[in-house]
TrEMBL record, chain A:
PANTHER family: TRICARBOXYLIC TRANSPORT PROTEIN (PTHR35342:SF5). It comes from the Bacteria. Pfam families: TctA. This is Tripartite tricarboxylate transporter permease. Keywords: Membrane, Transmembrane, Transmembrane helix.
Length: 501, 337
């Protein structure tokens, strides 16, 4: 009964007064920075790291971890209420979540996100406790060829996921990939598309693109038809999902949790893939496929569960191998080191109280988050009633200050303006920003791993078919491509029929 | 693209508001540059890499004790991009009044060889304040890689140069430079596999996707002690305390492979010498601080000797490194732009 002993040890550590207190501080801060556009968990953890130098190591890590997964909750709130995903994983939540908010169903959307996140967080914590070492071993088996296949799979799936024309979605992904290539090529150092500006050598900042494409573009669109202002917000009466809603979210939460827990283990962008994949799966198997993009609660519950589960299991590579899967995890490595603990495979045996205490604290943190978020949702709803002439400049100001302070790079601010206008034009043309953002995030990974796989194999392209993981994923990609082709045809026929009616 | 650049924002957020709050009373007296009253306002130390990284960690470690010694406040600002050249370019243009200081690492000496149109010259545009620390590097391999010693490794990679892979953390990264030195010392040209940073590279090394690499002890010590990777040598003249069994490159028969990630503080040329001396003095005080020594030890490194935390020693080291790397990099035919 090792697991039981470990959990007892973990909870006895995590339930110490100061640990519960700092866990609460962490998740509260995390929610707040998740909600504020442009300020993310990585920044917060970086800033608070020095403050935690004087804490007990386990207390410090509990608080820093709380900020990270707390932000996953908070990020979905802004995505739903003002269509401004703070992190790439929340971009999916915005698709249907914000539609629901526009229809006056912000309450159930927020509740579905919170409930899904809580369930996913709880399950993923157990997964973390039980399966950490074997899962980490699987993650290590992923070589560059396998990553390439995985990313390709993600991109193809997202085409099927897009609203409307598959061709436009493909074009948006391609544009996103091109934007992602701006900056120095990591293999040769050659600057690409930098227009002679050294500030662009590091590439275009993700936050600028997200804030511009989702935030500013959305504001422009809202200003255009001011009368469309969702006065429905005033009719947000019930937070609690209806019985029908509850019935509809059970499956997505279960599947999202499974997907998220599995993909979260992968180093680099696991939680982004998790939420996109979950959305694709839900859309694919739903009987109400046409509702997706127009406020389907499954499209909120699934991805939210997936990204929260992934946030939890992304600690697996850190705790079992000492390898960071996310920038926040890299900062956590710093936190370990500062406290004299060298992260690595030995931590779990050398510091059991710390590791199990941290794991147990995540469950406590998830409970705190639900308590924090459901009552506090009222505040966020009230925030939305602020008149546009006050709210919009505030959002723009926050976004600009936040983005500038990321790297003190004025180009990041220009990028917000550029992508805001680009996003607006694209929306006007009936193109969705979500696939563009996905291409932008995954494109560099696709290229990097394709080239790395070929470098290691000395140019032998069969490596993608001879590695079992890669071959399986590529087969799935082909299947997804085939399936994606059919609804496109069917949809067109449906449109034709609709017009004939 | 940059997905991971979020770290600094709040740090700078705080910095901006601090500066805003303090500039009201700070500018009352002299127009900067008054050495006697220095510091009369906040000193900004610019870090050219992301918050949470090794350079940032070292800077934040010494910022407080330095500020205490100076009797002022130090604000750390992260300005990322182009291997640290964006930050260096900014500080080179800053007013030489001692209120803008640059923390930079070995990249200061390699950038002129790697980048064309750098926009600044390390020796002309900067005054050195002092060296801070030198982080040793290790030569490590996946655990089932056949060679067992550094000499074995050299023989092996020469015989198998067509299939051996050498990972690094990207163009101009310390691991890349160390890899170049190894190839020069061994007299062999290997297939290099660049990664975005040292974390993913080490992950693939542990996973056995690539054969071997050079990396800082801050990253490798844990994996070496746990037996997840095989260590051949450390690249400093002395062994590393946390890895007592790993020989130095000199002991292992390759003394040419000497490299460490050294850090130093700079101010723009034209900064009054008295101010440079004050900064250097504060640096020395900070480096003698037991808390700083302890924190650095945990990172697998140590403060430089007091004699090296001086403008003169730092300048001499910078000159020597500029020459070394200009040759290594041009021999290897590497260019970052």
């Amino acid at each position: 009964m090792d697991l039981f002993d470990n959990l007892v040890l973990g909870f006895s550590t995590a339930l110490l007064v100061q640990n519960v207190l700092y866990c609460f501080v962490g998740v509260l801060l995390g929610t707040a920075v998740g909600v504020l556009p442009g300020i993310g968990p990585t920044a917060t953890v970086a800033m608070l790291l020095p403050i935690t130098f004087n804490f007990e190591p386990v207390t410090a890590l509990i608080m820093l971890a709380g900020i990270y997964y707390g932000a996953q909750y908070g990020g979905s709130t802004t995505a739903i209420l003002i269509n401004l995903p703070g992190e790439s994983s929340a971009a999916v939540t915005a698709l249907d979540g914000h539609e629901m908010a526009r229809q006056g169903r912000a309450g159930p959307a927020l509740a579905a996100a919170a409930i899904g996140s809580f369930i996913a967080g709880t399950v993923a914590t157990v997964v973390l406790a039980v399966a950490a070492p074997p899962l980490a071993a699987v993650a290590l088996k992923f070589g560059p060829a396998d990553y390439f296949a995985l990313v390709l799979f993600g991109l193809i799936v997202s085409i099927a996921l897009a609203r409307g024309s598959a061709l436009k979605a493909l074009a948006m992904i391609a544009l996103g990939i091109l934007l992602g290539t701006v900056g120095q090529d990591i293999y040769t150092g050659t600057p690409r598309f930098v227009l002679g500006q050294r500030e662009l050598y590091g590439g275009i900042d993700f936050v600028s693109v997200a804030v511009g494409m989702f935030g500013i573009a959305e504001i422009l669109r809202n200003l255009e038809n001011e009368r469309d202002r969702p006065s429905v917000l005033d009719r947000v009466t019930s937070l609690w999902p209806t019985r029908e809603d509850r019935r509809r979210i059970v499956g997505p939460i279960a599947r999202g949790t499974g997907l998220g827990a599995a993909l979260g283990v992968l180093p680099g962008g696991g939680h982004v893939l998790a939420s996109f994949t979950s959305y694709a799966v839900e859309k694919r198997i739903s009987k109400r496929r046409s509702e997706f993009g127009h406020g389907a609660i499954e499209g909120v519950a699934g991805p939210e569960s997936a990204n929260n589960a992934a946030a939890q299991t992304s600690f697996i590579p850190l705790l079992t191998l000492g390898l960071p899967a996310h920038p926040v995890m890299a900062l956590m490595v710093g936190a370990f080191i500062v406290h004299g603990i060298t992260p690595g495979p030995n931590v779990i045996t050398d510091e059991p109280a710390l590791v199990w205490g941290l794991i147990a604290s995540m469950w406590i943190g998830n409970v705190l988050l639900v308590l924090l978020n459901l009552p506090l949702i009222g505040i966020w709803v009230r925030m939305l009633r602020i008149p546009y002439q006050v709210l919009f400049p505030m959002i723009v100001l926050f976004a600009v200050i936040g983005t500038y302070s990321l790297g003190s790079n004025e180009y990041d601010v220009y990028a917000i303006a550029f992508f805001g206008i680009l996003g607006y034009v694209l929306i006007k043309c009936g193109c969705e920003p979500a696939p563009l953002l996905l291409g932008f995030v995954l494109g560099p990974l696709l290229e990097e791993n394709l080239r790395r796989a070929l470098i290691i194999s000395r140019g032998d392209a069969t490596v993608f078919l001879t590695r079992p993981i890669s071959a399986t994923l590529l087969a799935l990609t082909v299947a997804a491509l085939a399936i994606a082709a059919f609804p496109a045809i069917r949809k067109r026929r449906e449109v034709v029929f609709a017009e004939e009616d | 693209m940059r997905t991971s650049s979020t770290p600094r924002m709040i740090a700078t957020f705080a910095a901006v508001s601090l500066i805003a709050a303090c500039s009201g009373n700070g500018n009352g007296g002299a127009e900067g540059g008054d050495a006697a009253g220095y510091p009369e306002q906040n000193i900004t130390v610019v870090v050219p890499f992301s918050a949470g990284g090794p350079t940032d960690t070292v800077t934040r470690m010494i910022a407080d004790p330095m500020a205490k010694a100076l009797g002022g406040k130090i604000v750390v600002q992260n300005v990322e991009g182009a291997g640290g050249t964006v930050a260096a370019g900014q500080v080179a243009q800053a007013r030489p009044d001692g209120y803008t200081v640059l923390m930079h690492h070995i990249g200061m000496s390699t950038a002129p060889a790697l980048y064309k149109d750098l926009g600044y010259q390390p020796l002309e545009d900067f005054a050195t304040v002092g060296l801070v620390t030198e982080v040793p590097m290790t030569v490590v391999a996946r655990k089932d890689f056949p060679p067992t010693t550094l000499a074995d490794l050299t023989t092996y990679v020469k015989a198998n140069s067509a299939k051996v892979t050498l990972a690094n953390a990207g163009i101009g990264a310390a691991s890349h430079l160390c890899g170049l030195l190894f190839q020069a010392a061994a007299g062999v040209k290997l297939q290099e596999v660049p990664y975005q940073g040292t974390g993913p590279a080490l992950t693939d090394l542990v996973g056995g996707q690539v054969d071997f690499m050079c990396d800082q002890t801050t990253n490798t010590t844990g994996q070496i002690s746990a037996g997840k990777v095989k260590a051949y040598a450390v690249t400093t003249p002395e062994r590393v305390k946390s890895l007592p069994d790993v020989p130095t490159t000199a002991e292992a028969g390759m003394p040419q492979l000497a490299v460490s990630v050294w850090h130093g503080l700079y101010v723009p040329t034209g900064t009054p010498p008295e101010i440079v001396q004050k900064l250097s003095g504060a640096l020395k005080t900070a480096l003698a601080d037991q808390a700083v020594i302890d924190q650095m030890a945990k990172l697998g490194t140590a403060p430089v000797a007091a004699a090296d935390a001086t403008p003169e020693a730092h300048r001499a080291h910078l000159e020597e490194q500029l020459t070394t790397w200009a040759k290594v990099i041009s021999d290897a035919g590497v260019k970052a732009s």
